[in-house]
Amino acid sequence: MKYDFDLISIGGGSGGIAGANRAASYGAKCAVVEQAQLGGTCVNVGCVPKKVMWFAAGSADIIHSAKNYGFDVSASAFDWGLLKQKRDAYIKRLNGIYGNNLSNNKVQHIEGTATFIDPHTIQVGEQQYTAERFLIATGGKPSIPTLPGAHYGLTSDGFFELETQPKKVAIVGAGFIAVELAGVFQSLGTQVTLILRGDQALRQFDSMLGAELMNAMQHQGIRVETNTSPSAIEKQSNGQLTITTANGAIKDEYDEVIWAIGRQPNTDSLAIEKTGIELDKNGFINTDEWQKTSQDHIFAVGDVTGRTALTPVAIAAARRLSDRLFNGQTDRKLDYKLIPSVIFSHPPIGTIGLTEQQATEQFGTDIKVYTSRFNPMSQALSTEKQPTVMKLITTGQNEKIIGCHLFGENSDEILQGFAVAIKMGATKKDFDDTVAIHPTNAEELVTMT
Question: Are 145 and 259 contacting, i.e. CB atoms less than 8 angstroms apart?
């Protein structure tokens, strides 16, 4: 059978675009279907605009600490609307760059919503398209709870639509999105309450990271309510939102309530049942180590698979997939082990490998943990101290490093280089034998005893 395309990527985010561009570079006829702006979650309502806001919040932190170095400055005014305007213009430029790259690579951009007609055919608007292979990369979307008044709350998507800065917000959630938004708001002058269902944030990460961040957030003035969750949201006559909880712990009024309780697969419009693809119990698309679904010609990458929801992971998986399918690199696939990750909290967190609990479960007593806790030199002249904490987890007689967890300033930038070493199998002795760069925070990783 002759198909319209060799590959159609459903979803014009990082994974879908990366897979189509790479396949096209090998001569494949490709298309990308996207119903919204090109770039997906990361570019439009995720890592890129979030990092802009993180930089803004960091600028506020620098202004507040400048007096420690003799500067007489103050953040007398902050224009949220101007920041949003400049941020949105930046994102719009990126949307255009993505479109130009598709055009330059001779990848057809099909605007609209894709719905499967059968395993080899989709419909977009009034037009049907066939493909020998499909790559599903439709990403995820924020979850909203089913409780009275939930619609009054915003998701992380709604955060980026705010035209004015709220004076007081409640953020519900314990994951990285919740703590990142909490840090941005607080540094920019919004009063924040963080509501956690359990007793600690970042529960799926090494326990040290969550504990240190909880202390830091409370020290910064963030109100943290633990072991509770909303049961209802009400809008008062003055426009303020109130939260009802099972234990009655929260009684304040808020300008905004933000849901950051997780994400779910974005598959509603696909009519995926017409493909025979298998889903897991949460609706994510099951894929094997080759990104293949239960249909041999349909593949999936990124958040829609529920596997390591990070933009660089989706890109890497999609490019390797196209290398294998269209360039004969038969063994090409993504290794999901030892993937570094950063949380842009205040201060940032960097992590790679096993947590201490995971290492204990896997290796028992055959692990050794090294830690370092110190006040960075940047705070030497300040009366306010925010400790940096680092942890290395090793196993075996040669002390191979199987986990590295960083909390503190510059952890986001420090981790990348050390992640290369750990991915290559570095041992504690390899770190010890590396001459330290002094004075830096990073040197602590090669001087731990």
Answer: yes
